[in-house]
Amino acid sequence: MEVVQVLHMNGGVGETSYANNSFVQQKVITMTKPITEDAITKLYCSTYPEEIAIADLGCSSGPNTFFVVSELIKVVDSARRKISQKSPEYQVFLNDLPGNDFNTIFRSLSIFQYKLREQLGPGIGPCFFTGVPGSFYGRLFRKNSLHFVHSSYSLQWLSQVPQGLESNKGNIYMASTSPPNVLKAYYEQFQQDFSLFLNCRSEELVDGGRMVLTFLGRRNDDPSSKECCYIWELLAMALNDMVLEGVIEEEKLNSFNIPQYTPSPAEVKYEVEKEGSFSIDQLEVTEVNWNAYQNETDLSDAFKDGGYNVAKCMRAVAEPLLFSHFGEAIIDEVFRRYREIVADRMSKEKTGFVNVIVSLKKA
């Protein structure tokens, strides 16, 4: 699997699109706002720059893309008004892999800019947008050209499927039945990737530049624990059932592995300190329910079905990976089964995504 080619969220604005099934990710961004606001405020108030270059890495498409950017600009605008400072100019870089649906982003850009001017008034400085397709496990920007980097729910994705997973039979990710060498391979790939990410960003950020990174992660030391791997184990159950029925070839399933690693706070801290380019300002852990609509009111009947909500969220994320490996024919059936399995488990136990958030300053 060439991750750079096939890893992207479902594009467009249809029923299974990421744009319409990313409420979990929006909730996580909202939960992280105090940390993000603190970081961008400290950045701005340290030097009051006349221009601010912001990069959102793994921006995907849909409302969350502009939600992050607008919140950052609003915080800076509020800070500069308090001291009667002229608004800086903003350069915003939206980055994701080449398969990302950049077209949908830029079709809605003029509406976003209009709303932002309406909210902040005529004093707001110009805001320039650039799409940057490419992997953030490599250089993307000029040296010393960025002030602030944001990334949410992207850095758990690896640059490639780790080598040596042949013994991970019946699983599609790390699981309770995965051999130790599989867990080791995943961890070493994360170490390599995250260290490279930090090194590249240290080149691109100005001195004193800041980053806020949110990983899908875990609290404990076990990389195969249910709190981070269960969501994929249930998908593997649906696929294994289809193998037993002869719908999917067993060999096809055994050669499929998710290119992801969900780190613990200790693992994130260790890599940051080992790489050495950044100091940690804040490191926190939060949790959000699998079903982001759980406590919402005035929902239609469809959205009251937790299994339906979670299966659609996961389909928006995982469908391109499954499609590239198994083909289109199985997709609807996989997620029909997955919805039933997820609904059953959610009715019997507490389920949630753990988020690891780190705020960093370039040393």
UniProtKB/TrEMBL annotation:
Metal-binding in keyword set: yes
PANTHER family, per the entry: S-ADENOSYL-L-METHIONINE:CARBOXYL METHYLTRANSFERASE FAMILY PROTEIN
Cited InterPro entries: MeTrfase_7, MeTrfase_capping, SAM-dependent_MTases_sf
Domain of life: Eukaryota
SUPFAM superfamilies: S-adenosyl-L-methionine-dependent methyltransferases
Gene3D superfamilies hit by this protein: Methyltransferase, alpha-helical capping domain, Vaccinia Virus protein VP39
Swiss-Prot/TrEMBL GO biological process terms: methylation
Origin species: Gossypium darwinii (Darwin's cotton)
Protein name: Salicylate carboxymethyltransferase
GO molecular-function term, one example from the UniProt record: metal ion binding
Keyword list, A-Z: Magnesium, Metal-binding, Methyltransferase, Transferase
Entries under Pfam families matching the protein: Methyltransf_7
